[in-house]
C-alpha cells in the first residue's frame, strides 16, 4: 500500500506569514505553483495559501473600466485611483489571506485516504508533517494521479 511518504514532493517551496501579497503573486508565477505552505519563524506549518486566496481576497479591488482602441488604453477613471487600489491590495500580507490550520497528513497516511481527504476538504495540496508540524513534503492531486500508474 502506497503512503504519503512514497509519493510526496520533498522539495517544498514556502512563504512566511509576513510575505507581501505582491511577493506571493510573483512566487506563484515564478514557481508555477497553485498553492504554497506558509511557515512560521520556527519553520512550523502556519497555514496554506492558494492562488484562489490571492484572487478572492476579502478586500475588494475596484478595477476601473478600460476601453482599448487601436492599442491605446483609456481609463474611464483616473490612473491615480487605479494605482491606489492596486497598492491597497499588494500591501497586504499572506497571514491576512491564508487558510490557517489546513488539512495535513503524516508520512504513513495511505494514498487512498489522502485522495478522499482532498475530495472531502476540497483542497488540491496536503502538507505532510511530523509531530512538531514541520513540513516534510506535500502531496498534490498530480502526485496521486502519478501514483495510479496510468
TrEMBL record:
Entry-linked InterPro entries: CBS_dom (IPR000644), CBS_dom_sf (IPR046342), Diverse_CBS-Domain (IPR051257)
Keyword Membrane: no
Signal peptide from the UniProt entry: none
Any Pfam family the entry gives: CBS
Keyword Protein biosynthesis included in the entry's annotation: no
Superkingdom of the source species: Bacteria
Keywords: CBS domain
Domain CBS per the UniProt entry, residue ranges: 8-65, 98-150
Protein name listed in UniProt: CBS domain-containing protein
Amino acid at each position: 500500500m502506497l503512503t504519503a511518504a512514497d509519493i510526496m514532493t520533498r522539495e517544498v517551496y514556502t512563504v512566511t506569514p509576513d510575505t507581501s501579497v505582491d511577493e506571493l503573486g510573483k512566487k506563484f508565477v515564478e514557481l508555477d505553483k497553485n498553492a504554497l505552505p506558509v511557515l512560521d519563524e520556527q519553520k512550523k506549518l502556519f497555514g496554506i495559501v492558494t492562488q484562489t486566496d490571492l484572487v478572492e481576497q476579502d478586500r475588494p479591488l475596484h478595477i476601473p473600466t478600460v476601453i482599448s482602441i487601436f492599442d491605446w488604453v483609456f481609463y474611464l477613471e483616473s490612473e491615480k485611483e487605479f494605482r491606489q487600489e492596486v497598492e491597497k491590495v499588494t500591501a497586504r500580507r499572506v497571514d491576512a489571506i491564508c487558510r490557517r490550520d489546513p488539512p495535513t497528513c503524516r508520512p504513513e497516511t495511505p494514498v487512498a485516504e489522502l485522495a478522499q481527504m482532498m475530495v472531502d476538504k476540497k483542497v488540491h495540496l496536503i502538507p505532510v508533517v511530523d509531530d512538531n508540524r514541520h513540513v516534510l513534503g506535500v502531496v498534490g492531486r498530480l502526485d496521486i494521479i502519478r501514483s495510479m500508474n496510468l
